[in-house]
Specification:
Layout lengths: L1 E2 L5 H4 L10 H16 L3 E11 L10 E10 L3 E10 L2 E12 L7
Antiparallel strand pairs: 1-3, 2-5, 3-4, 4-5
């Protein structure tokens, strides 16, 4: 669960006096949450399907809950996820994240 800060600069440009959370940020937030969950850096390898079902106005709907199911292999995290505001699903995605390996194999 996250709490959106409607005073953040991103909302001033998207859009003045009518703030809307850019859809790409939903994927970005999910990406960061998965990195925290799995304790490693991930790269978006492919987005199989994305659906933006409802606009999120952070002044009205500041709380967003992310729910996901992931199957992981040594190199990939295959994810199906959604974002929920109140009781409404606002975003769905099916994506593959690749584990980022450093030059030492870690």
């Amino acid at each position: 669960k996250i709490l959106l800060d409607y005073s953040h600069a991103i909302f001033a440009g998207h859009f003045p006096e009518h703030p809307v959370l850019p859809g790409v940020l939903l994927l970005s937030i999910l990406h960061e949450l998965l990195e925290l969950q799995y304790g490693c850096k991930l790269h978006v390898a492919s987005v199989i399907q994305t659906k933006f079902l409802q606009v999120i106005n952070p002044t009205i709907q500041p709380r967003v809950e992310f729910i996901w199911h992931a199957d992981q292999t040594e190199n990939y995290v295959n994810t199906k996820a959604s974002a929920v505001v109140d009781v409404s699903t606002v975003f769905k995605v099916s994506a593959v994240f690749e584990r980022v390996r450093n030059e030492f194999g870690g």
